[in-house]
Amino acid sequence: MRKFILFLTLFFSLAASASKPLKIGVISDIHFLSKELTAEGDALAAYERATGRNIRDSHEVLDTVLLNFQKERTDILLISGDLTNHGERQSHLDLIEKLKSIQRNGTKVFIVPGNHDVNIPDSKAYTGEKPVPVKSISKEEFAEWYAPFGYGNALKRDDSSLSYIAGINENTWLLCFDTNRYAEYKTTSVSGGRIISSTMDWALDILREAKAKNITVLGMMHHGLVEHMPYQSAFFAEYLIEEWKKNAGILADAGLKVMFTGHFHSNDISLFTSPSGNTIYDVETASLAVYPFAYRTMELVDGKLSIDTHFVTSVSGNPELAAQSRSRLETITLRVAKNRIKNLGISFPVQTEDVLIKLIAKMNLMHVRGDEAPDEEMKEAIREFAGLLGSEETDSDFQLDFPPADNRLVIDLTEKVF
After folding, report:
1. Is 359 domain-assigned?
2. In this structure, are 216 and 185 located in the same domain?
3. Residues 214 and 249 placed together within one structural domain of the fold
């Protein structure tokens, strides 16, 4: 009888352990700029106007989010690139200390580089009237400095890039892709990304091994794997990896179900289904440096990944954080939209161009937060623009947000691969 009770106790203990949720946090595009590289003055003011960022606010936002992960006893934290503002050595050093602090409190941290992190030719400090050049870090230094956050205890490293595979637990691996082109940087960074063929071959070997061992694999990289908005590959190709359809299909057919990304500073989830019928989700997380200051919390249990999204709307130093940062983003988006339209080389009537610019700005403000639902003002803008073009398209014909939901979603990672 005593043995039977002991058996039941052990059985239920193991069952409870097997179904214990893995708590995962995701942040992206921190663009951390060390306080040692900033001081009140013309250089910093110009930088903040150009980027829409406020350095004091962004530091407080990051500290708030890291503290929230710590309070929630998050098991692992994923950071999908653009760790630093523009590759400054001091920014890397200061950020690493923050990450070591949360790791000491029990949260494992895994990172990948973004296009603003490695081998940056024009890193700067903003401490006077004009920006001052500072040093960046090399590919080798990046792997060495961030050894505690994936590289040092990787199961395998890719010889061709800063890609690696890490073990999260006995049933789950994290496949991290380095999609950046820092070897090509001459005067500044290159926004576009790619998965080089040797890295893809390396990754496919890992996915085959994982399938044989019945291991769940999560993916992470900086650039988008899948389109997140209409015509993104035409107008914002540099925010997707090259040949995105081909590569998304290859990874989906190899059994990868989800990829965590950043780069576009938007909070959006999109999916792609390969010709063979396999689906992969691109879970893109917005920047922590600008509106809407989003971060994700997730739970992985029994092959189901539950995703939730949170937004930092205020900090102790700025209770009006959301409203102020949204206004700054709108100003920048209007400017960028105007330049993009000009660079298309298409001549629009002034009224049509003005309406289009305002429409793009409103679309972007909705897109960065996710789950875009056109309000009456947006519908009217769409109708007005369509009318100016002489189109019969109505607001109901216009797909603003690709499925699925962006901010709350459950992904089944156990679906069969065809």
Report:
1. yes
2. yes
3. yes
Structural domain contains residue 51? yes
Q: What count of other Cβ atoms lies within 10 Å of the Cβ of residue 356?
A: 19
- The amino acid that residue 74 corresponds to is T
Three-class SS state of 108: strand
Residue ranges making up the domain that contains 298: 20-315+405-412
268: left (phi over 0), alpha (psi -120 to 50) or beta: beta
Cβ atoms 304, 21 nearer than 8 A: no
DSSP 8-class letter at 75: S
pLDDT, one tens digit per residue, over 81-134 is 999 999 999 999 999 999 999 999 999 999 999 999 999 999 999 999 999 999
Q: What's the domain count of the chain?
A: 2
Model confidence at 150: pLDDT above 70: yes
Question: Does residue 14 sit within a domain?
Answer: no
**Residues 99, 62: contact at Cβ < 8 Å?**
no
Q: Are 134 and 93 in contact (CB under 8 A)?
A: no
Element (H, E) at 201: helix 197-212
pTM (two decimals)? 0.91
Phi, psi of 155, deg, nearest 5: -70, -40
Looking at the structure, tell me whether residues 335 and 268 fall in a common domain: no
**How many other C-beta atoms lie within 10 A of the C-beta of residue 60?**
18
